[in-house]
């Protein structure tokens, strides 16, 4: 079941992304169209959700959180465009529609991804509001680290290197903590630094929650690659198996992969229990992550 708050924040981020793209210069119309196509092509909006939900829990206004939510979704959208390219995963479908390089062309897709990545940092650097300069700079640094050689890009490099290889659980976990988990952790950290809190214990608990949640998300993705179908997933079912990629079900077996997802869910709840806030919304979201069908 989709939490009510997810629908609410999905609606807000869609509106903010539309406003963001409307404000961009249309010097190169095809590039602008490709950016808009990929950025506003649906999706669960998990990372903006975490920015909004965690930030609201900490007492931050949605207006203050908009810049972080938009920036992280621009960064995520760039990564999906590049992920789908023939040189990477070579996928034809994303969110039930042709991938960017199929809807446009490879060169335009590469440029659209590049432009969305640049836009993410522009949004954070240009954000107006009451946040201190130190906090604003911290948000930029967090997104840079989570997306680069210490985060998402490193995870993708490991993923490519491990195709057709037989490695262990530690390598698989490291890959996913970087490729998927780094941005999910970044989302809650952006929410924290959008506040004026100075509480390391709160930041640590939020990061632990996001770390467990990010890995649970990926385990469930691996399970769905086996159990779901293309129409429901919005991308080719079984693509990981066909590409001979290392997955949790392939390494542990399907049932043990499901047990792993449940264990990580419990870890996420334990981290939330350390917070002196009402975490019911985040608890419901964690359950949604491991119970979802797409």
Question: Could you explain how this protein is built, in words?
Answer:
Helix 2 crosses helix 6 and helix 4 packs antiparallel against helix 9 (169-193). Strands 1-2 form a two-stranded antiparallel ribbon. The mean pLDDT is 92. A hairpin with a 2-residue loop joins strand 1 (93-94) and strand 2. The chain contains 15 helices and 2 strands. 72% of the residues lie in helices and 1% in strands. The chain is mainly α and 294 residues long. The chain has one domain: Orthogonal Bundle (Farnesyl Diphosphate Synthase), CATH 1.10.600.
Question: Care to give the gist of this entry?
Answer:
72% of the residues lie in helices and 1% in strands.
How much of the residues is beta strand, in percent? under 5%
* Number of continuous helical runs: 15
Q: In terms of structural class, how would the helical and strand content be classed?
A: mainly alpha
What are the secondary-structure elements, in order, as H or E?
HHHHEEHHHHHHHHHHH
DSSP E strands, number: 2
Tags for this model:
294 residues, two-stranded antiparallel ribbon, 15 helices, 72% helix, globular
SSE arrangement:
Blueprint: H1 4-22, H2 29-39, H3 46-57, H4 62-83, E1 93-94, E2 97-98, H5 100-103, H6 106-126, H7 133-147, H8 152-162, H9 169-193, H10 200-227, H11 230-233, H12 239-242, H13 248-252, H14 254-272, H15 280-291
Antiparallel strand pairs: 1-2
Helix pairs in contact: 1-3, 2-6, 3-4, 3-9, 4-6, 4-9, 7-9, 8-9, 9-10, 10-14, 10-15, 14-15
